[in-house]
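B., you asked whether I could sanity-check this one before it goes into the benchmark set. Here's the sequence:
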Amino acid sequence: MEQPKQPRQDKMTPPERMHAIVTRQRPDRVPFIPFIFGFCALNVGYPVRAVYEDAEKSFWAQMWTAEMFGYDGGPLYGYASFGGWEFGGEVKMPQSQWEAAPVVTRFPAKTPEEVEALEVPEVETAGAMPIAIEFAKIQQQFGMPVTVQVAYEKTGNSAPPHEKGDPISEKSGGLFRGKISRSSHHGFYGRTNSRQSNHLSETVRGICSPLSDGLPSAFYR
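And here's what the prediction gave me:
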């Protein structure tokens, strides 16, 4: 009877593996990086909203959970509904046991014209950006790459979904439900995403890059 193969032993630690990735070196294996912000909070006894509202609690919840379960990837700050709050709307932080992330409750733009008129906000005070910048400073304090998640489906979170029958919505294949495809051919959402999201990304990069102090910086978009 053939003996089962033994699992291959890692040759790198998680920090070494991630450092290889961000410096374009070959890691010993594909990293495993779960997207589990809410679980990290609950795992260490914090409410889910703490991982989005408190930079220090978010950082340590992710650090302790990664140490407990042994997966790759360092702590980072971000959320899928980014853009609605930052561009002047409102979000609701998770409160019930069924809520796992912030959701947009008031969009900063309601029409194509209002989306086109959106201006890039002051990054230091816009929505969750002060929390993200504080989180980046904690990363820098511990010698980690500075990671900032920006421009992720920003435009889709800046305007509500269109009604059924709208040509732009139907052209997108019915994807206009608060999260919009980032392809430019999907109408005004894509055009605004390309222009203003890139501007916001570069603004944040300018603020956070000095924090890296020579370390590689990863920007999630």
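One thing to flag: Residues 11-73 form one domain. Otherwise nothing jumped out at me.
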